[in-house]
Structures are given as C-alpha cells and as structure tokens.
C-alpha cells in the first residue's frame, strides 16, 4: 500500500490499483480485447476521451502522434487532463496539469518533473507504469483514494494513453485523464 503527500489539500493517498490494457505496439489490438478493457472505464468523460484517442490510433494503426490532437479537442476534457513527456534526461516532465486536478490536489504540477513532487515509493509506482506504457505502447487505468486535509475521502479514476512526438519515435508522452469522485470507481468485478 503506497502513501504519499502532495499539495496543500491532500493528507495522503492510498489503495493504488492498476489495470493494464492492450498493447498497441504491433498495431491495433483485437477488438474483443479492447472492448473488454473499455468496460472497466466507468466514467463518461474518461470513456469519451479514450474513444477519441482510439479513433486517432485507428487512423495510424497504433499509437497516435501528439500533434494529431488539436487544442479544441482537448477543451472539453482540459480541466481533468494531465500531460507528461519523457525527456532526454529520462525524467517525466509535466507539460499540462488541468485546473480540476490543481483544485483537488492543491498543487499545479505544470513545468515540474514527477520526481519533484512524489515520494520515492509513489514515483516508482508511476514510473514503472509509465515505462510499461512506453515499452509496450499500452494504455492503463489507475485507481486510488486520497484523504483530504478536511478528512474527506475522494477516489480517483485515471487513464493513461500513450502518444508519440513523431512517427519514428517510441511513445514518449502520456495523455492522462483523471477524475475524482466520492464513490470508488474500481470495477466491482475485480474486487
């Protein structure tokens, strides 16, 4: 069980779970595999962004390029989007952190590296998942809970979708959509 402290409004986070989705390394996954994975996404806006990403992936027969997404396409998801890019220094740099995430966490990660605001244990959890995303070009879901300084518990559903900077590169960007709710969105069928 990982715990860390981030921002002014968060006491701790806990109960991390990950569901790895299909790989896009060798093109589009089997449709049944993709449909099964999507059933675990039980938030309308998260599912809509995932469908948009898959539409772009279908056009490229694999992981889409970052430039395949326009600013206008991100607007409806923007306050819940987090984008990080793997740089030459082998660190994940935050290029965008949406306002809803800042409001919940009490912290704007834009312009910061993951290792600047995560404890070593949490950083390892995040980077291990991001490395799988990069190496296997896979999508994944993360679920966790956080206790706020007012003692309320909030639950997160996060999907990370790989992007490429150019057609010849590996996936080096994580397009993440994160929502916080009062109910735990981890699928009952996997408890």
Q: How does this model look, in words?
A:
The protein has 191 residues and is an alpha+beta fold. Helix content is 28%, strand content 31%. It is built from five helices and six strands. The protein has a six-stranded antiparallel β-sheet, sandwiched between helices. The longest helix is centred in the N-terminal third of the chain and has 17 residues.
- The fraction of residues in strands falls at 25-35%
* Secondary-structure class: alpha+beta
Uncertain spans:
1-5
Number of discrete helical segments: 5
Q: Tell me, what's the shape?
A: globular
Tell me the helix content.
Answer: 25-40%
Number of strand elements: 6
Biggest β-sheet description = 6 strands, antiparallel
Alpha carbon gyration radius: 16 Å
Side-by-side strand order of the widest sheet: 1-4-5-6-2-3
* Mean pLDDT, all residues: 88
List the secondary-structure elements in sequence, H or E.
EHHHEEHHEEE
Q: Whole-Å distance between the termini?
A: 15 Å
Write a brief caption for the model:
By secondary structure, the chain is of the alpha+beta class.
């Amino acid at each position: 069980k990982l715990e860390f402290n981030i921002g002014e409004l968060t006491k701790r986070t806990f109960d991390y779970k990950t569901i790895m989705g299909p790989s896009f390394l060798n093109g589009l996954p089997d449709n049944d595999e993709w449909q099964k994975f999507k059933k675990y996404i039980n938030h309308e806006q998260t599912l809509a962004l995932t469908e948009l990403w898959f539409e772009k992936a279908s056009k490229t027969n694999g992981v889409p390029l970052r430039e395949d997404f326009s600013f206008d396409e991100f607007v409806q998801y923007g306050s819940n989007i987090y984008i990080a890019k793997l740089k030459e220094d082998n660190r994940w740099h935050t290029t965008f952190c949406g306002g809803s995430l800042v409001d919940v966490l009490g912290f704007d990660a834009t312009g910061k590296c993951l290792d600047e605001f995560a404890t070593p244990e949490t950083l390892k959890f995040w980077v291990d998942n991001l490395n799988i995303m990069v190496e296997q070009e896979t999508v994944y879901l993360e679920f966790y809970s956080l206790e706020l300084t007012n003692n309320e518990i909030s639950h997160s559903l996060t999907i990370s979708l790989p992007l490429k900077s150019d057609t010849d590169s590996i996936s080096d960007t994580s397009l993440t959509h994160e929502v916080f709710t009062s109910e735990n969105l981890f699928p009952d069928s996997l408890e």
